[in-house]
Amino acid sequence: MSFLRYALITMPLVLLLGIASGRASNSGYGNAWFDALVKPEIMPPGWVFGAAWTLLYILLGLVLAMILHARGARGRGVALALFLGQLLLNFAWSPIFFAFHRVEEALIVIVAMLALSIAATFVIASVRRTAALLMVPYLAWLSFAALLNYQIVALNPQADRLVPGRASADIAL
Q1: Which CATH topology does 3-161 take?
Q2: Of the four, 51, 114, 151, 170, which is 20 to 30 A from 143 by CA?
Q3: Cα separation, 57 vs 91, whole angstroms
Q4: How far is residue 139's CA from residue 121's CA, in Å, rounded to a whole number?
C-alpha cells in the first residue's frame, strides 16, 4: 500500500477518534464541571484547544501512515507499539479528566503519555526522520497540557466533588 493510501485512512481515523473522545466526554468550556474549576492564568481560550488538537491529530495521522508505510524498517514494530500506546492514552485522557472528573489520575495519564511519546519519537526517528519531526509540535503541546493539568490539580484540590453525583453521567455513548 502506498503512503498516500495509508494517510487517507490514518489521518481521518485519528482525527475522528480524537474528536469522538472529546465529544463523548463533554470536554472543554461549556462543561459545567470544567467551567466551575479554578483555571491557571496561562489557560488559553477554548478555540485554541480545538484548533491545536485538530492540527495535532492530523499530524499524528501522518506519523502513523509513515510508520505503517515503512515496511521492513528496523524498529518499525517498536515504533508502532509505542505510538499506539501513547495514542490510546491520549484518547483516554478526556474521559478521565472531563467525564469522570479525576484530575489527579488525568495528570498521571498525561505524564505517561508524554513519556511514551518521547520514547516513540526517538524510535520513530530511526524508522522515518520526517515522522519524528512531525511529533515535535505534539510533544510541545503535551508538555503545555501537562503543565495545565498540574496547575488545575494544584488549584482545585476537591475537583472531583465540584458537581457531586455526576462523575460518570457526563460521558455520552
Answers
A1: Ferritin (1.20.1260)
A2: 170
A3: 11
A4: 9
The answer to whether the beta carbons of residues 63 and 135 sit under 8 Å apart is yes
**Global confidence as pTM:** 0.90
* 3 state DSSP class of 97: helix
Counts of helices then strands in the chain (DSSP H, E): 6, 0
3-class DSSP state of 39: coil
* pLDDT per position as a tens digit, 135-152: 999 999 999 999 999 999
Where along the chain do its domains lie?
Answer: 3-161
Q: Which three cell numbers stand for residue 135?
A: 511529533
* Among candidate residues 1, 14, 89, 26, the one with its CA nearest the CA of residue 56: 14
Q: In this structure, what C-alpha cell is assigned to residue 93?
A: 485522557
